[in-house]
Amino acid sequence: MHINQNYLNLKDSYLFSVIAKKVKEYTATHPDKNIIRLGIGDVTLPLVPVVVSAMQQAVTEMGAAETFRGYGEEQGYAFLRQAVCGYYGKKGVALRDDEVFINDGAKSDLGNILDIFSPDNTVLIPDPVYPVYVDTNIMAGRKIIYMNGNAANDFLPLPDKNIRADLIYLCSPNNPTGAVYSREQLKAWVDYALENDAVILFDSAYEIFVRDKTKPSSLYQIDGAKECAIEFCSLSKTAGFTGTRCGYTVVPHELKRDGAELNKLWLRRQTTKFNGVPYIVQRGAEAVFSDAGLAQINGNIDYYLQNARIMADTLTKLGIWFTGGENSPYIWLKTPNGMPSWDFFDFLLEKANVVGTPGTGFGVNGEGFFRLTAFGNRENVLEAMRRLQSVGIAT
Ligand code: MLT
């Protein structure tokens, strides 16, 4: 018997678990402190009314013999897959409902999708990056090449013709930096993937924050993307589903490698290893895509974007360099006076009782940077910004 030795190559703990542990230890020794959490991107506004009533209705159905449902389709109910297609239609992207797979959030599928690719594939991952892309590939023992995101390229790395990769992770609007790729930049990635026979794994979990209509909110808005990309999206941030759990993965029929349709492989994988998302949750998710649902969730997104503006204004006032905060719920700032990321984390926790995420947790290029999220409630965001201004962090 042998364990998967690749697990021994992982850092001891997942980034957000480390932060949660540190905050727990601090609160245990300082129970009187009012800690404001702007670390993990967890939403604070409740589910919107149309979602709540759709789920209540679904609960009632599940409690009556005539409308009760047992196992559903592993890839999700057709009503929800069609609603997702309708949403993509509004973006000018035509999808068939069997190209949409309902999941319990993007994180699971971003890791699970690796089942359908050979362990020999080389993976290209931006740095800084959402740690799930890195950790899941380390677990599978894949070779990882990193591409540098930095202030010089606005944290939006572009393809390098000298580098050959099979799988490419992109996230736009980006977690952690909040940076958003333009149409031309994404076209460069699609062209690169097509030339190299590579597959892009495109994380669009923050697509709803794109308010600048010149910027793409789906990679499929770029010609050729259906032949080279899988897109992952989540209702966690879109509709406050971090605790409710629902998202979707799009695998277009046009996407073929080694003569096989990836859509068929993924369906085969999901029907074997996944039993679907609860009916009640899928009814709630369906309501998100109704006209009333979209209007209500966009009200919440406006609120978070306003938080981001408040945070951006404070950083500007303090003379602190940052990116993001526009078309994104994340603000990525340079730590004052070149302070290492974890030192700044400790400083903010102790002096301002504000929790953020150290940039170095997202990769080596994150050293000297720090991420704040705009998902707090308004009062806390305002208070956190007041505290930032009073602890002497101006550069
Ligand atoms: C984050 O803070 O980066 C996200 O909330 C984590 C996630 O979506 O899993």
Give a summary of the structure in a few sentences:
The chain is α/β, with parallel strands linked by helices and 395 residues long. The protein has helices at 15-29, 49-62, 78-90, 106-112, 131-139, 183-196, 235-238, 262-273, 279-288, 291-318, 341-352, 378-390; strands at 36-37, 100-103, 122-127, 143-148, 167-171, 199-203, 229-234, 247-250, 256-257, 260-261, 322-324, 330-334, 354-355, 357-358, 369-373. Helices cover 38% and strands 15% of the residues.
Note the main attributes of this structure.
single chain, 395 residues, alpha/beta, Aspartate Aminotransferase, domain 1, Aspartate Aminotransferase, domain 2, 2 domains, seven-stranded mixed beta sheet, four-stranded antiparallel beta sheet, 12 helices, 15 strands, binds D-malate
3D architecture notes:
It is a single chain. The protein is of the alpha/beta class. It folds into 2 domains: 5-47 and 293-390, Aspartate Aminotransferase, domain 1 (Alpha-Beta Complex); 49-290, Type I PLP-dependent aspartate aminotransferase-like (Major domain) (Aspartate Aminotransferase, domain 2, 3-Layer(aba) Sandwich). It has helices at 15-29, 49-62, 78-90, 106-112, 131-139, 183-196, 235-238, 262-273, 279-288, 291-318, 341-352, 378-390; strands at residues 36-37, 100-103, 122-127, 143-148, 167-171, 199-203, 229-234, 247-250, 256-257, 260-261, 322-324, 330-334, 354-355, 357-358, 369-373. Helix 2 (49-62) runs antiparallel to helix 9 (279-288) and helix 10 (291-318) packs parallel to helix 12 (378-390). The longest helix has 28 residues, at 291-318. The protein is globular. The protein starts with 14 loop residues before the first helix and ends in a 5-residue tail after the last helix. The mean pLDDT is 96. Bound molecules: D-malate. D-malate binds at residues 40-41, 107, 130, 175, 236.
